[in-house]
Amino acid sequence: MNDAEWAVVRDLLPVPGWLSGRGGRPEGYCHRQMIDAVRYLVDNGIKWRAMPADFPPWPRVYAFFARWRDTGLVTELHDRLREAVRAGEGRSAEPSAGVVDSQSVKADATVTFGSRGFDAGKKINGRKRHLLTDTLGLLLAVLVTPASVTDRGGARSLLAAAAGRFRRLARVWADGGYTGHLTDWTSQHLGLVLDIVRRSEDVRGSSRPFPAAGSSNGPLRGFCAAAAWSGTTNAAPTRAKPSSAGR
C-alpha cells in the first residue's frame, strides 16, 4: 500500500501486546508488510503457497490473516474503513438502504463436492457469493454457498443477518431474480422493504436503481474494497451464517 493508504489504516489496527506492555514476543514482521501480502494475494488470485519471495513467508502471512479473521479483526477493520468512507461522503455510519445481488463462480478442482453446486441458470459449477452492499457499493454482508443455492434462498439468510446488525436498514433493492415470496417474507419477518428493479426492454447493460456516487476518498475506498474482498474470497462455504463486513 502507498503511504497515503497506510496513514489511514495504521491508527485503525490493534496495537501488538509487546508494544502496549501486555507482554509477548515481538513480531518478526510489521503489520504493513503482512497486509501488503494479503492484498497481493487477493488482487492476483494466487494460492498461499505462491506468495512471492518479496513478502514474508506464506505460512507466516496465512497465520497472521487467520488470526485476524478468527478474532473478528478483519471484519472490524473493514467496518471502520467503511464508516470512514461514508463519513467522507456525508453519510451516516449506518446504512438505511442497500442492494442485494449474487455472483456464481467456477470452483477449482481442489474444491470438495460438498461445498460446490451447479447453477442451472448460469451453467456454472462452483460456489455462489450472495452480497449486500450499501448505495455507495460498500460491502455490508456476504454469504458463500454452493452455486446450486437459489438467489432467494441465500438472500433470506443474508438479509436476516444484516437486519439484526444494521438497525437503520429499511429498504433493499434487488433484480428480478428475487421476485416471489421473498418480498413478503422480508416485510413480515424483518421489517424491510424489498424493491424489485425490473430491467427495461430497451435498456442494455446493468440497471441501477440510483445514480453512481462520485468519491474523493480514493485511498479509503481502495483499501476498504481490498479488506472486504479478502473476507469474501477466503470465506468458508455456509448455508446459514453470513459474515458481515454497512448506507
TrEMBL record:
InterPro entries: IS402-like_dom, Transposase_11. Pfam families: DDE_Tnp_1, DUF4096. Residues 94-181 form the Transposase IS4-like domain. GO terms for molecular function: DNA binding; transposase activity. Signal peptide: none annotated. Residues 1-78 form the Insertion element IS402-like domain. One of its GO terms (biological process) is DNA transposition. NCBIfam families: transpos_IS5_3. This is Uncharacterized protein. The lineage of its organism: Bacteria, Bacillati, Actinomycetota, Actinomycetes, Kitasatosporales.
